Amino acid sequence: MRINLTQHDSTTEQGCAPRSKEQTQRIKELLTIAELPDERDLTRRAVALAELARTAGATEAMVGSVNYLTLFLDPALRQRRIQPLYAFSQRESVEIAQEDGSVIKKSVFRHLGFIKF
Hints:
four-stranded mixed sheet, alpha/beta, globular
């Protein structure tokens, strides 16, 4: 089972299990860092995220947070035999001409696979 440990909704192509409202809220709390963290705080957050994944029955976890948290999260997941997955996507820009002559530019991200190591 693959869990989404990011702040964003996963796509169908990413194949993550649906999250409960409580899981989503807790993940967002743990990923939102408003003050300069120290090693102890980063370790606490990483362990809590990894435990959330473990108790959900995950064998894989899609991760995508700031790199200084990922340095702690990756080994915390591996210690629990959960494979970290890093989504690889391609950005496609789409320009939509409006009747008034203006142009709206949107970016669409296409999931192309996962990087795992």
